[in-house]
Amino acid sequence: MNEESPNPDAAARRTQSPQSVTRVIRILEALCAAARPLTLAELSRTLATPKSSLAALLRGLADEDCVVQAEGAWRWGAGAFGLGSALAEARRQLQSSDLLRDGLRRLAARSGETVLFAVGDQEDAMLTYVDIIESRNSVRFAAGFGDRRPLYPTAGGRALLATWPEEALQAYLRGIQPERFAERTDTDPAVIARAVAEARASGVAQTVDQAGDGVTGSASVIRDASGAVIGVLVVAAPSSRSQDRLAELAAMVRDEAEAISRSLGYRAGEKT
């Protein structure tokens, strides 16, 4: 069947499917991110979705005044701006700290390990733990609220360093005098630089027996709607329990950090 010659009944069924809900959201996000109205063909290419499927959804959105067609292109309508205002007010009422805490709880439940949120101080080159959910395991990583750690030996610190401008990172590496917190602590700035580069490329930093003997950390940064880094999400666990699940823990913390960032309004690629 030709996708460019839509069957009305089939289009109606598609608009009622869960996939259609996702597509409606993607349409609104695409129109929001675009610097100008988009044609049906442009939306189809951007969203990798047949024009026939999008046409039915756009008609439904137009009926609710969420999109408007003018000169063959689509843009946000008054209804979408009203919805955006309502969502912004809802987010204001649901404080960012609540969204962060919800994310920490989800990650603690999924991982079974201690989860922390830390903020960085570029001037002092330290991070501070400001929220903690401890694992229920009898053997677990424990840290206190307000505890501070250097950046270079911690997963959270390396994740933060990976977001620094290159000039600031190089100045940091030239100025540090690393000390050993464990037998395996990296004290060579070149080795630390490679670890930070890996974290920058993958979106997650991991350390094994670096900030302390027998401690494994996995960390990924959290961003707000402007794209600014507001802190770092960390999963910390005994190394004896973590070595067979390093990839799993890395994926968990990266996915949850992305989910929290999204709940705070961040959209990758749209903000800097």
Gist?
By secondary structure, this protein is α+β, with helices and mostly antiparallel strands.
Going across the major beta sheet, what is the strand order? 6-5-4-9-8-7
| CATH architecture descriptor name of the largest domain | 2-Layer Sandwich
Q: Any idea what the CATH superfamily of the largest domain is called? A: GAF domain
- What is the overall silhouette? elongated
The CATH topology of the largest domain: Beta-Lactamase
Q: What pattern of helices and strands is seen along the backbone?
A: HHEHHEEHHEEEHHHEEEHH
Mind explaining what this structure looks like?
It is a single chain. By secondary structure, the chain is α+β, with helices and mostly antiparallel strands. It has 11 helices and 9 strands. The chain has helices at 8-15, 18-33, 40-47, 51-63, 78-93, 96-111, 155-161, 166-175, 189-202, 239-242, 246-263, and strands spanning 38-39, 67-70, 73-76, 114-121, 126-133, 148-150, 205-208, 215-223, 229-238. Helix 1 packs across helix 4. The longest helix has 18 residues, at 246-263.
